[in-house]
Write a structure and sequence with these properties.
By secondary structure, this protein is mostly helical. The protein folds into 2 domains: 118 residues, no CATH class; 83 residues, no CATH class. 49% of the residues are buried.
Length: 227
């Protein structure tokens, strides 16, 4: 149990690496939390300082989730939790717990005074490590919604809801060997992402949510001389 606690703590620390904040500060000396939406996530990084730092932030944020769920659990005892009669279940539960710790770290990073992002990319990294096909299909939903609506927030919310739906369909309709833990985790993450996007939902309903104006490489507010 001690080793599991250590691995969960390491997962939180990995999740706390503020890719958006550090990339924008190192490249341009700008704190993205002071501009745009004030969120320390990849979307606001694209909006504030442009595509270079935004791409770095996206890679870092997804990488945090992938490392937490795909690498760190190898150091934890799989027998720490009941398997519910399925041998593979314990390993998945440990991986998901590590992933949740990383998402918590992303949202409340110890390296950035506990002011982080909303955890969408980090959650995507976790799921990509554990079920690539379901995650890639979920990303396709994100791309389609973004392409048709130009709302990043709406795309994130619908993709979050799509993931457990896709897992359920693959598991119970097409009989793909997926553990029930992934479905439960997907539902929990979807709820968390919806809650984290409450302000976006209010703006969507009011009709004043920010849209992506162009899919060309973003210059950001910095590139346009607005900051």
């Amino acid at each position: 149990m001690i080793s599991l606690v250590i691995v969960l703590l390491l997962s939180y620390i990995v999740g706390s690496i503020p890719g958006s904040l550090w990339s924008s500060k190192l490249l341009y000396g700008i704190d993205v939390r002071e501009h745009g939406s004030g969120n320390a996530g990849a979307t606001n990084t694209f909006r504030v300082v442009g595509w270079q730092a935004g791409v770095v932030a996206t890679i870092v944020d997804m990488g945090k989730g992938a490392v937490a769920a795909g690498v760190l659990p190898l150091w934890a005892p799989f027998g720490a939790f009941p398997s519910f009669g399925i041998a593979a279940e314990s390993g998945v539960i440990v991986a998901l717990l590590c992933g949740l710790a990383a998402v918590t770290g992303h949202m409340f990073p110890v390296f950035a005074r506990f002011r982080g992002g909303k955890g969408v990319n980090t959650a995507a990294g976790i799921l990509l490590a554990l079920t690539p096909v379901s995650t890639l299909l979920t990303m396709l939903v994100f791309v389609i919604v973004l392409g048709t609506t130009r709302y990043v927030s709406l795309s994130s919310i619908l993709a979050a809801v799509a993931f457990p739906t896709i897992v359920a369909v693959r598991k119970y309709v097409f009989d793909v060997d997926l553990t029930a833990s992934l479905l439960i985790f997907g539902i929990v993450v979807a709820l968390a992402i919806v809650v984290a996007h409450q302000s976006n939902i209010r703006r969507l309903l009011a009709g004043n949510e920010n849209r992506v104006s162009s899919f060309k490489p973003a210059e950001g507010m910095r590139g346009r001389g607005e900051i």
